[in-house]
Amino acid sequence: MDAQSFQLPLFFDLAAVFLMAITGAIEAIRRQFDIIGLCVLALATGVGGALIRDGIFLQNGVPAVLVDDRYMITVAAAAALGLAFGTRAVISTRLIDLVDAAALGAYAVVGAEKTLGLGLGVVPAVLVGVVNACGGGVLRDLFVGERPMVFKPGQFYAFAALIGCLVYVPLRRHSGLEPMTAALISIGVTFGLRVLSLKLDLSTAPLREKGILSSNSRRRKIGRRGS
């Protein structure tokens, strides 16, 4: 089975939309938006990456989000869930981080697979996969007036999506694994790397600093060595 003859089940795309939309809804509650603001932020976060993928990069007809009603139904369900449980969820930032990490991996794989399905190569597949994974988060941050997370030093986010895509594309094209198995492995790698960076406080550093660890992490390490 070659890369052009397989299509990931729609479940992967819808699951990523749902998870990302939930993070948007909870962020809206955290910032005390009204119901309209919550719905708009859930929509932008949930389908932003897919719209950028289909509308700007792949341009393979009308974006799937506008063709299939299930995308909007999924966003509506996420917004409703955010309304029902968001006030409790905002207490746990760890929960939001886990949901976001799961969505990151799923969207990365979906973007890479859709690109391969059009007959494009490795580099475009990785690029679109990363943009697909991070696009919703970028729109969410812009809508709330913050510098997007992908542009700031911090725990691995775009980097985790990049590694997930770099794992998926070779597995998909050269390993002989079932496509579903390759997808699940890549999602697991992305999720694991993102969670590990949060747990161990691994983060990227500003360009004026050298090394992968931030100055805070480096100072903590120096402090531990000195104590």
Overall structural domain count: 1
Structural class per helix/strand content? mainly alpha
The largest sheet, given as strand count, sense and whether it forms a barrel, is: none
First-to-last CA distance: 57 Å
| Low-pLDDT residue spans | 1-5, 217-227
User: What amount of the residues lies in strands?
Assistant: under 5%
The percentage helix is over 70%
Tell me the number of helical segments per DSSP (H or I, 4 or more residues long): 9
Average pLDDT works out at: 82
Domain Glycine transporter: 11-84, 98-171
Protein name: Trimeric intracellular cation channel family protein
Membrane topology: Multi-pass membrane protein
Family: Belongs to the UPF0126 family.
Q: Describe it for me?
A:
The structure is a single chain. With 227 residues, this protein is mostly helical. It has one domain (10-226). The longest helix has 25 residues, at 93-117. The model is unreliable at 1-5 and 217-227 (pLDDT under 50). The protein has helices spanning 10-30, 35-58, 64-67, 69-89, 93-117, 122-143, 158-174, 179-199, 215-226. The radius of gyration is 18 Å and the shape is globular. It is a multi-pass membrane protein. It is found in: Cell membrane. Keywords: Cell membrane, Membrane, Transmembrane, Transmembrane helix. Belongs to the UPF0126 family. InterPro entries: Gly_transporter.
